[in-house]
């Protein structure tokens, strides 16, 4: 069953929508870092760009179903669990879906050897 818009097969789970939330969150944090915004009692600077950039890269890896994207999102989701209540909900959902649908992240070499 292929998607009519992309020609790619549809995948189960909510990994892609949650990963796009991660991309949007990372982009917003990048903008906040560039603007030297103050969030709570913390003033962000350009030096703080590494974390939102890592969030964006990990989310794009999960969208493309790369194994490194899965493990990166596990790490970032575990950190997001501390951000009660929204981070806990989004991070928990991502960990759940990454675990339940882990077969979607198999490397292409393994997937092609299994079908031969």
Secondary-structure map:
Layout: H1 15-34, E1 38-39, E2 42-43, H2 50-63, H3 67-80, H4 86-100, H5 108-115
Antiparallel strand pairs: 1-2
Task: Characterise the protein shown here.
By secondary structure, this protein is mainly alpha-helical. It has one domain. 61% of the residues lie in helices and 3% in strands. It has a two-stranded antiparallel sheet.
* Helix vs. strand class: mainly alpha
> What Rg, in angstroms, do the CA atoms define?
16 Å
User: Share of helix among residues?
Assistant: 55-70%
The biggest beta sheet is recorded as: 2 strands, antiparallel
Number of helices: 5
Overall average residue pLDDT: 86
The tally of beta strands, per DSSP, is 2
Number of separate domains: 1
Strand residue content: under 5%
Run of helices and strands: HEEHHHH
For the largest sheet, list the strands in their spatial order: 1-2
Low-confidence parts: none
Question: What best-fitting shape do the alpha-carbon axes yield?
Answer: elongated
End-to-end gap: 21 Å
């Amino acid at each position: 069953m292929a998607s009519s818009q992309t020609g790619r097969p549809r995948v189960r789970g909510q990994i892609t929508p949650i990963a796009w939330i991660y991309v949007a969150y990372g982009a917003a944090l990048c903008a906040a870092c560039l603007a030297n915004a103050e969030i709570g009692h913390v003033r962000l600077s350009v030096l703080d760009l590494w974390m939102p950039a890592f969030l964006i890269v990990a989310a794009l890896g999960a969208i493309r179903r790369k194994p490194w994207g899965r493990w990166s999102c596990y790490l970032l989701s575990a950190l997001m669990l501390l951000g009660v209540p929204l981070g806990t909900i989004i991070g928990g959902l991502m960990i759940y879906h990454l675990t339940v649908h882990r077969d979607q992240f198999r490397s292409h070499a393994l997937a092609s050897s299994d079908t031969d």
